[in-house]
Amino acid sequence: MKYLIFVVLLGLLVTLFVGSTEASFCPCNLRKAEVCGSNGVTYKNRCEFECSQREYKKLGRILNVRKQGPCFQIKWN
Length: 77
Fold this sequence. Notes:
alpha+beta, Wheat Germ Agglutinin (Isolectin 2), domain 1, three-stranded antiparallel beta sheet, 2 helices, 3 strands, elongated
């Protein structure tokens, strides 16, 4: 009986782990074409932005592109 309970709990943990990692998996290329999000974060490219956008949507939040390029540019004179 203890063995059965252990196996069931282990199965539930594995299912939870696989479900949480699968949801956040978002393969993107390494091409750099920075995008500034409405959250003030600079994303490496449009694909990475869209991955974050999907996560925001799951939370009921909105994420838009503020502009092409980095959010903040430091100018050294």
